[in-house]
Amino acid sequence: GELMAVLDKRPPGAYGEDIPLDQSTLCAWFVERVSAWGSKAGMDAFSEPEDDSKRTIALAGEILVLDVEVVTQPQMRMAAVRVSFAVPGDSQTTEGSTSLGAVFYDALKAFVDEVLKGEKADPVEAAKIGFRVQDGLKYLMELDRLAVSDESGIRWFQDIDRLGVMLESVAKMESEALRQYGLHLVVAYNTR
Question: Which partner from 7, 34, 85, 118 sits 20 to 30 angstroms from 1, CA to CA?
Answer without folding.
Answer: 34
